UniProtKB/TrEMBL annotation:
Protein name: Glutamine-dependent NAD(+) synthetase
Positions annotated to bind L-glutamine: Y122, S179, K185
Source organism: Actinoalloteichus hoggarensis
PANTHER family: GLUTAMINE-DEPENDENT NAD(+) SYNTHETASE, NH 3 /GLUTAMINE-DEPENDENT NAD + SYNTHETASE
Xref: InterPro entries: C-N_Hydrolase, C-N_Hydrolase_sf, Gln-dep_NAD_synthase, NAD/GMP_synthase, NAD_synthase, Nitrilase/CN_hydratase_CS, Rossmann-like_a/b/a_fold
Function noted in UniProt: Catalyzes the ATP-dependent amidation of deamido-NAD to form NAD. Uses L-glutamine as a nitrogen source.
Length: 585
């Protein structure tokens, strides 16, 4: 029975920061080896960060990434990690083009390379645009154990390289991932990894990135399962982690590892590095398998939003954020997220009352500031609005929107003066139906809740306050902001319900139309009122231009607006009741 100590390094890489990422890899590998690890696995594209988009096509970047992996190999040996097998995701480049690759590093050099075979090209992924798929499957014999490597999408396909590895015979498979967070995806992943391990009849180590890159959040959720599909250990979501696990590997049939050549379409390439397991560091502690309890749906989404915002702020070099506080639920939830993400001392809230602002909008905003301890100021916009309205002769909707735009100018002025990142507070429901003022409340550099439906915004607010209650802390969100009826307050007594269907119904239709991608007939067949469907679908389609100009924000759903759902702006196709001819067809 061979025993291997594995370390799964769930790290937060930064796109483009080759030297910073390589230092992180060396530090983590050193820590893993000190903990006795003989095999250390890092996530997909950890050296470059992920996704790198068109940087993959930039020759200077690809050349630098390929050079950096050799530097990492040397640095690993100097750091005392030479005896270990260290597997690192990086950007390779050969005569055929860029590769999404894994380097197998041992004894100060790259001993093997694997190029991802299945390139995802749906949802947020565009890997056909960037990479050339691999056709070679290396199996490295290390410490008498045959180790195969695959990358992320490879395990999501039924006829992927794992079935070829199973046919060729391996003792252990390492899967490197850049798998972005979506609600409840951890359950899907857990089942998938267990199924693949059972098919292989060998343990699988699944290592994912953590942290955010623009609109994507990586939740980690790294895990290791045995050949029966039983989970041995799992990392917590949304934090960096080093998961150290001992694997007992049954004696291997020597004949099995003799096979070379092709099993499926891939060329199998076997290399022997060592027959004996390298010794563990003398003072290595015992490895204790762990698996944290799963997070509730609200806790998971909250953590995703906090991570998305925190990393956007930090990785783009901001120290402070600012936002308008209206006393309403959206700005209150965004403010609470900000406080959790960067700390109250780095959050600047501005109340900007107009002549239509209610008393409670001002008192609820002040209450929020008091509860959270963020920096708070009041900047009335009455005089600015009056100048625009009088000089330009504005009325009706034009006058309403000028209020939102005076607030935008105020926030941008303060941002330029004081250096804050301005946050837009719109939610997914508003974005869907175009219920925001372009260049007004849609202004900002980042939009933390743009993928959160309005009904879920309320759930998050309730959850965050309940969490504070549980911890014996002040509730961050004023209860009145949660319970009062939503209003944009752009004219006297305006209510969201004057212009929009009620939010639970609206979100149900949007869920079916946007996430479910259903057409008019499907929506009506699902039981939604035909006139309501027609109205909502029209609003969604007509607001495409507004969404294109909305700031980026964290994806949490299966289908976020933006890269997940790309529709033409100029578009005469309208979902409608089928014509008699269409029905006959
Ligand atoms: N296809 C297209 N491509 C490029 N631009 C296009 C366009 N179609 C219209 N436009 C332009 O867009 C502009 C109209 O859009 P916009 O100025 O936003 O105005 P609009 O969408 O007409 O009005 C804003 C709506 O959002 C509501 N609102 C505002 C503020 C906050 C909230 C809230 O509760 O959060 C709600 C407000 O009550 C109103 O119903 C015009 O300049 C028009 O020319
Ligand atoms: N009086 C105000 N003072 C400061 N900011 C405001 C004010 N009114 C609106 N805003 C900003 O514009 C955003 C849109 O506000 P509005 O009240 O129109 O819509 P909402 O979607 O109901 O948002 P909220 O729930 O935050 O009120 C707010 O979240 C806030 O950032
Ligand atoms: N990086 C990838 O290949 C990701 C694709 C995969 N289906 C996932 O989201 O987990």
């Amino acid at each position: 029975m061979a025993q291997l100590r594995m370390a799964l390094a769930q790290v937060n890489a930064t796109v483009g920061d080759l030297r910073g990422n390589s230092s992180k890899i060396v530090d983590r590998a050193r820590q893993a080896v000190e903990a006795g690890a003989q095999v250390v696995v890092f996530p997909e594209m950890v050296l470059t960060g992920y996704p790198i988009e068109d940087l993959a096509l930039r020759r200077s970047f690809a050349t630098a990434a390929r050079a950096e992996i050799d530097v990492v190999a040397e640095r690993l040996a100097s750091a005392g990690c030479g005896a270990a097998l260290v597997v690192i995701g990086y950007l390779d480049h050969d005569e055929k083009g860029p590769r999404n690759a894994a380097a197998l590093v041992h004894d100060g050099r790259v001993v093997e390379r694997y190029a991802k075979q299945h390139l995802p090209n749906y949802g947020v992924f565009d890997e056909f645009r960037y990479f050339v798929p691999g056709g070679r499957l290396p199996i490295v014999r290390f410490g008498g154990v045959d180790v195969g490597v695959v990358i992320c999408e490879d395990i999501w396909r039924e006829e992927g390289p794992t079935s070829e590895l199973a046919a060729a015979g391996v003792d252990l498979v390492l899967c490197l991932n850049g798998s972005p967070y979506e609600r409840a995806k951890d359950d899907t992943r857990g089942e998938l990894v267990a199924r693949r391990a059972r098919e292989l009849g060998a343990p699988m180590a699944y290592v994912n990135l953590v942290g955010a890159q623009d609109e994507l959040v990586f939740d980690g959720d790294s895990m290791i399962v045995d050949g029966d599909g039983v989970q041995l250990a799992r990392s917590p979501q949304f934090v960096e982690d080093l998961l150290v696990v001992d694997l007992d590997l049954p004696p291997r049939d020597a004949a099995r590892s003799a096979g070379r050549g092709a099993v499926g379409t891939s060329e199998i390439a076997r290399t022997t590095l060592s027959e004996a397991v390298p010794p563990m560091a003398a003072d290595a502690p015992e490895a204790r398998p762990v698996a944290p309890p799963p997070l509730s749906e609200e806790a998971e989404v909250w953590a995703a939003l906090v991570t998305g915002l925190r990393d956007y702020v930090a990785k783009n070099g901001f120290r402070t954020v600012s936002l308008g506080l209206s006393g309403g639920i959206d700005s209150a939830v965004v403010a609470a997220l900000c406080v959790d993400a960067v700390g109250a001392d780095r959050v600047h809230g501005v109340s900007m009352p107009s002549s239509y602002s209610s008393e409670h909008s001002k008192s609820d905003a002040a209450d929020l500031a008091e509860r959270t301890g963020l920096h708070y100021r009041v900047e009335p916009i009455v005089d600015m609005v009056r100048v625009f309205v009088d000089q330009l002769g504005l009325s009706g909707l034009a006058e309403e929107n000028v209020q939102a735009r005076c607030r935008a100018v105020t926030l941008m002025g303060l941002s330029n003066q004081e250096g804050h990142l301005v946050l837009a507070t719109g939610n997914k429901t508003e974005l869907a139906v175009g219920y925001s003022t372009i260049y007004g409340d849609a202004v900002g550099g980042f939009a933390p809740i743009k993928d959160v439906p309005k009904t879920f915004v309320w759930r998050l607010a309730e959850w965050r306050n309940a969490e504070a209650r549980r911890r014996g802390e002040t509730l961050p969100i004023p209860p009145n902001s949660i319970t009062k009826p939503p209003s944009a307050e752009l004219r006297p007594d305006q209510m969201d319900s004057d212009s929009l269907p009620d939010y639970p119904m609206l979100d149900a239709v949007l869920d079916a139309y946007v996430e479910g991608d259903q057409g008019y007939a499907d929506l009506v067949a699902a039981g939604f009122d035909a006139a309501l469907v027609e109205r909502i679908v029209r609003m969604v389609d007509a607001a495409e231009y507004k969404r294109r100009q909305y700031p980026p924000g964290t994806k949490i759903t299966l289908r976020a607006f933006g890269r997940d759902r790309r529709l033409p702006i100029t578009n005469r196709w309208r979902e409608h009741k089928p014509t008699p001819e269409q029905e006959r067809a």
